[in-house]
């Protein structure tokens, strides 16, 4: 749900908005949802994106790919990638992921993999 013209803090709230309205963020449920009804819930104010109709369609298409190619487990996109190049290729096969967005995502995954997550309140390491 990232878009260069859409504030990052709003983009990251998109999945939570979908859960609140749809009741789930399960790829199989999203892929199977009626496209018109799903677009309508994505368009409800505040919308999930500045272009809610096209984002709803894109989200359903990504969900279909996750169901068909990754057995409904989106984490397999990165956990089963052989390396950064393979991950970028997998990401760019998804609707809405161009080279730049894939590169950013690969960097985030690599950074996350290099150090364990901190708990809230823990100091920097």
What helical percentage do the residues reach?
A: 55-70%
Number of strands: 0
Spell the H/E element sequence: HHHHHHHH
Task: Indicate the radius of gyration in whole angstroms.
Answer: 16 Å
Descriptive report:
With 125 residues, this protein is mainly α. It is built from eight helices and no strands. Helix 4 crosses helix 5 (52-70) and helix 7 packs across helix 8. The radius of gyration is 16 Å and the shape is globular. Residues 116-125 have low confidence and may be disordered.
Summarize the topology.
Elements: H1 8-11, H2 14-22, H3 27-32, H4 35-43, H5 52-70, H6 76-79, H7 84-92, H8 99-114
Helix pairs in contact: 4-5, 7-8
Quick take:
The protein is mainly α. It has helices at residues 8-11, 14-22, 27-32, 35-43, 52-70, 76-79, 84-92, 99-114.
Using brief descriptors, characterize the structure shown.
about 120 residues; mainly alpha; about 60% helix; disordered C terminus
């Amino acid at each position: 749900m990232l878009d260069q013209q859409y504030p990052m803090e709003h983009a990251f709230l998109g999945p939570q908005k979908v859960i609140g309205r749809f009741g789930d963020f399960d790829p199989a449920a999203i892929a199977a949802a009626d496209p018109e009804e799903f677009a309508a819930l994505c368009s409800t104010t505040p919308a999930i994106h500045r272009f809610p109709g096209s984002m709803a369609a894109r989200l359903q298409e990504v969900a279909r790919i996750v169901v068909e190619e990754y057995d409904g487990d989106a984490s397999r996109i990165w956990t089963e990638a052989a390396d950064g190049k393979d991950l970028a290729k997998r990401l760019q096969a998804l609707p809405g992921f161009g080279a730049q967005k894939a590169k950013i995502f690969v960097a985030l995954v690599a950074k996350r993999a290099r150090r364990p997550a901190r708990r809230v309140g823990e100091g920097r390491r």
